[in-house]
Amino acid sequence: MIRAAITGVASYVPEKVLTNFDLEKMVDTNDEWIVSRTGIRERRVAAKGEASSDMSVKAITKLLEETGVKAEEIDAIIVATITPDMVFPSTAALIQEKIGANKAWGYDLSGACSGFLFALKSGAALIQTGHKKVIVVGIDTMSSILDYTDRNTCILFGDGGGAVLLEPTEDENYGIIDEILLIDGSGADALHMKAGGSRKPATHETVDAREHYIYQDGKSVFKRASIDMANVSLEILEKNDFKAEDVDIFIPHQANKRIIDMAARRAGFKDNQVLLNIDKYGNTTGGTLPLGLDEVVREKRIKDGDLVLLAAFGAGYTWGSVLLRYGPSRKA
Ligand code: UT7
Questions:
Q1: Which of 28, 180, 251, 265 could bond to 292 as cystine, CB 3.0-4.6 Å?
Q2: Which tens digits make up the pLDDT trace of 70-99?
Q3: 142 in ligand 1 pocket by Cβ < 6 Å?
């Protein structure tokens, strides 16, 4: 059986750091509230004019250098993002041109915080049907849709993301083992952007009403995220005859440290099994999972063949889990 293996990972975050203390000067908030309610201390913010494709190209360039793969070898580019450079063409097309992937096709995928999981499944399906090299990106420029006068949302999110290289393997010690992916559109009211789509195109009125920013009913999302992210993690382990202690690293979506702690406890993970980097980056939406994976690989918290569990919950609602054995790492 052919599985899709992650043979490389790289990430990128913009240089500019926005701390809780910086935010204290912008809205009625304080470091103590943000740290105790969310676990976030700082986040990155893209430079003026720096878009999702630019950040993706930085991550992919590093990925190709480190794996020794040439851009023209790439069959497809899938980009999980809710902040594409433009509504169209796709960010994937812009990336294709910038990196010179002249044999690739690709597309953007809108799955919000679960977008990278959905894109991994899509990429794996391409690998299982004949593609040899697929780049899967999770990236978001959340600062482009944040209202920096709204303390309910502007403290939560940051910019950044990463990319992985998928290749086929028949070795059972590596690759994506299983996934559980779900959507529930009844959650749309709790987390969305009101205008700028076909229902409510941009007008002076929508701009004046600040409807091109994220709207979130935090409490409703919190309740669902802390339960569903744990349940979907437990379910995938049981389905594949694993226990929590078999997992080398659990990489949950980083929206709120309290959600992560609840989900990890409910699923039975010890603290040292859980990746936590929300303090540095906040919630980077589609970028969070590849950023986390890159961190554990670079810091050698995992090695080839280790069991990795990814899980996320976000707008839609969307949620899910992906279970995989990392590697085999391709080295240039
Ligand atoms: O990735 C997409 C998925 N998103 C999530 O998973 C996010 C889920 N939600 C959350 O993480 C949390 O609900 C929040 C962090 C957004 C909010 O935390 P909370 O503990 O649910 O706070 P709250 O909304 O109940 O607000 C408590 C109080 C309120 O004041 P009153 O009404 O009790 O007087 C808020 O107005 O805290 C106030 N507040 C703030 N105070 C200082 C809200 N935001 C702030 C702030 N600074 N930034």
A1: 251
A2: 999 999 999 999 999 999 999 999 999 999
A3: no
Cα separation, 155 vs 275, in Å, equals: 21
pLDDT digits (tens, 9 = 90+) for 286-332: 999 999 999 999 999 999 999 999 999 999 999 999 999 999 999 99
255 lines ligand 1 (CB under 6 A): yes
Residue bearing the CA closest to ligand 1, atom 21: 219
Distance of CA 199 to the CA centre of its chain: 26
All structural domains of the chain with their residue ranges: 1-332
- The pLDDT of residue 193 is 98
Q: Which residue has the tokens 């959507």?
A: 183
Spatial distance between the Cα atoms of 181 and 118, rounded to a whole number of angstroms: 7
Contact 317, 183 (CB under 8 A): yes
Neighbours of 41 (CB within 10 A): 17
pLDDT (0 to 100) of residue 68: 98
Question: SS3 for 324?
Answer: strand
Residues belonging to the active site: 113, 253, 283
Which segments in the chain show pLDDT lower than 70? Answer: none
Per CATH, the homologous superfamily of domain 1-332 is Thiolase/Chalcone synthase (3.40.47.10)
Report whether residue 222 contacts ligand 1, using a CB cutoff of 6 Å.
yes
Q: What are phi and psi of 44, to 5 degrees?
A: -100, 150
Give the pTM: 0.97
